[in-house]
Design brief:
This protein has about 300 residues and is α/β, with parallel strands linked by helices. The strands form two sheets. The protein has an eight-stranded parallel beta sheet with strand order 1-2-3-4-5-6-7-8. A two-stranded antiparallel ribbon has the order 9-10. The chain is globular, with a radius of gyration of 20 Å.
């Protein structure tokens, strides 16, 4: 979930949101006049609030801005082990990620930090989308790749509305299918998580649920939330249902039992089950392990 780093009350609400990850935003959500002060607010939020199981992240300003360098130095120096992840916006090349990695390595060494800080990267520029595969493998710190639909809309000169989608019926299908799959494939090839784009119309909870459902079907691991009301919806959509978990366990057990008898494929409930189905079922069980047993 995204939260303006300049707003102390919103930071406190974010800590209570039950989101898997909250990033305090020094970039788009902060006015230029507040960017310097927001660093200190973020540090206090990270170090003084109870975040529970939530991963604590900060989105720095872009590498081409005058704020990026001090964002890294001041927030890492102040938050230290209370900071889990840096989110790099508008990555255009693997070199962008490399630069942040080098800065973090120097800061961790200087400060004597024992826990490495992870990286997530936003794909939201045309050149970044084309270089997504190289960006995803640019650093061993990378934990996730995020599809940033807002700036990508502007970069591509897309004719979309404030929700970064065309009006209903104006386009036959998922307007962002190709870009989503580029980001997803790059993340999967690199062995990192893939996070779907934000949905700005937080009052349209049905629309958010539907959009999250499409992303979950593709294989994304989660979806960006811009308001606390969206968090439980995302948690629900991306958590395997008890029926899905039960089916996956039965499939894995049946397939492995068949393998011990030298059989590489079997019929189960009137359907052929082979190694491809086993991989799909194991994906469901791995995701269920990250939740409360896959129970909604």
């Amino acid at each position: 979930m995204a939260t303006p780093a300049s707003n102390e009350s919103m930071c406190a609400a974010a800590a209570r949101s039950d989101a898997d990850l909250v990033f305090l935003d020094l970039e788009d959500a902060c006015a230029p006049s507040m960017k310097a002060a927001a660093r200190g607010i973020a540090v206090r939020a990270f170090t003084e609030l109870d975040w529970g199981r939530t991963t604590r992240a900060v989105r720095i300003n872009g590498l081409d801005t005058p704020w990026c360098h001090d964002d890294l130095i001041e927030v890492v120096t102040g938050a230290r082990e209370a900071l889990d992840v840096i989110i790099v916006p508008k990555a255009r090349s693997a070199r962008d990620v490399w630069w942040v990695d080098v800065m973090l390595t120097q800061l961790e060494t200087k400060l004597g930090l024992t826990k490495p800080i992870g990286l997530e990267v936003l794909i939201e520029e045309a050149d970044g989308l084309l270089a997504a595969a190289e960006i995803a493998k640019a650093s061993p710190r990378l934990e996730a790749m995020i599809f940033g639909v807002g700036d990508l809309s502007a970069a591509l000169h897309a004719r979309v509305g404030g929700n970064f989608r065309p009006s209903a019926g104006a386009y036959p299908g998922d307007f962002w299918h190709f870009a989503r799959m580029q980001v997803l494939a790059a993340a999967r090839a690199a062995g990192i998580d893939a996070i779907d784009s934000p949905y700005p119309d937080y009052g349209d909870t049905d629309g958010y649920r539907a959009d999250a459902g499409h992303a979950a079907l593709f294989g994304f691991d989660g979806k960006w939330a811009i308001h606390p009301v969206q968090v439980p919806i995302a948690n629900d959509v991306f958590t395997p249902t008890p029926a899905e978990v039960e089916h996956a366990r039965a499939l894995v057990d049946g397939y492995r039992a068949a393998q011990t008898g030298g059989v590489g494929a079997l019929g189960q409930d009137g359907q052929l089950v082979d190694a491809g189905h086993l991989r799909l079922a194991e994906n469901v069980l791995r995701k269920a392990e990250l939740t409360d047993g896959g129970v909604r």
